[in-house]
């Protein structure tokens, strides 16, 4: 059985709700959840906050956080996931922010740099990863990492 289906089944069985706030994955994480049968029982919704403006407006990310650390940072990922919880009150909240490429990278923040915020039971963890590959490979690798991480949590 595919890992995604297995995770969704476990979430449904445990009545564990989930929501997403995506930037670099652009909805791929939400799709990876909602493409599964009965996902409506646990997936409450999500935000695709690709612009800084929407991160601030929809998820209450502070302008000062983005100015000081950048949109691609552990601080922004943390504020995205906290803002998501305020809006959705789900058991699991996940945020993604990063540089999927092919442009936009720098020496300090190379293409493939991803931050993932995961909030479970009031505790927030931030994962940092550098992926290689094309834009879609980086996005898919990010989503795969999230699902693998979820297997440890549920």
Shape: globular
Tell me the strand percentage band: 15-25%
Order of SSEs: HEHEHHHEEEH
Proportion in helices: 40-55%
Task: Please state the second-level CATH architecture.
Answer: Alpha-Beta Complex
Overall strand count: 5
Q: Looking at CATH, which topology would you report?
A: Maf protein
* Structural class determined from secondary elements: alpha/beta
Q: Tally the helices: what do you get?
A: 6
Domain count: the total is 1
Q: What is the makeup of the main sheet?
A: 5 strands, mixed
Instruction: Report how far apart the termini are.
Output: 17 Å
CATH class wording: Alpha Beta
Radius of gyration: 15 Å
Main sheet strand line-up: 2-1-3-4-5
**Average predicted local confidence, pLDDT:** 96
Can you give a write-up of this model?
It is a single chain. The chain is α/β, with parallel strands linked by helices and 154 residues long. The chain has one domain: CinA-like (Maf protein), CATH 3.90.950. 44% of the residues lie in helices and 22% in strands. The protein contains six helices and five strands, in the order H-E-H-E-H-H-H-E-E-E-H. It has a five-stranded mixed beta sheet, sandwiched between helices. Helix 2 links the parallel strand 1 and strand 2. The two termini are 17 Å apart. The relative contact order is 0.18. The model has no long low-confidence stretch (mean pLDDT 96).
In short:
With 154 residues, this protein is α/β, with parallel strands linked by helices. The protein has helices at 3-13, 28-34, 52-59, 63-69, 74-88, 135-153, and strands spanning 18-22, 43-48, 92-98, 113-120, 123-130.
């Amino acid at each position: 059985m595919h890992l995604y289906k297995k995770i969704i089944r476990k979430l449904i069985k445990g009545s564990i709700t989930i929501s997403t706030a995506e930037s670099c994955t652009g909805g791929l994480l939400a799709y990876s959840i909602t493409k599964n049968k009965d996902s409506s029982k646990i997936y409450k919704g999500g935000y695709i906050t690709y612009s800084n403006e929407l991160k601030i407006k929809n998820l209450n990310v502070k302008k000062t956080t983005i100015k000081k650390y950048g949109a691609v940072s552990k601080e922004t990922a943390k504020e995205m996931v906290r803002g998501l919880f305020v809006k959705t009150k789900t058991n699991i909240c996940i945020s993604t922010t990063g540089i999927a490429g092919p442009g936009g990278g720098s020496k300090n923040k190379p293409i493939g740099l991803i931050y993932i915020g995961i909030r479970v039971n009031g505790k927030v963890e931030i994962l940092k990863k550098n992926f290689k590959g094309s834009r879609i490979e980086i996005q898919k690798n990010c989503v795969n990492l999230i699902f693998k991480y979820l297997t440890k949590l549920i």
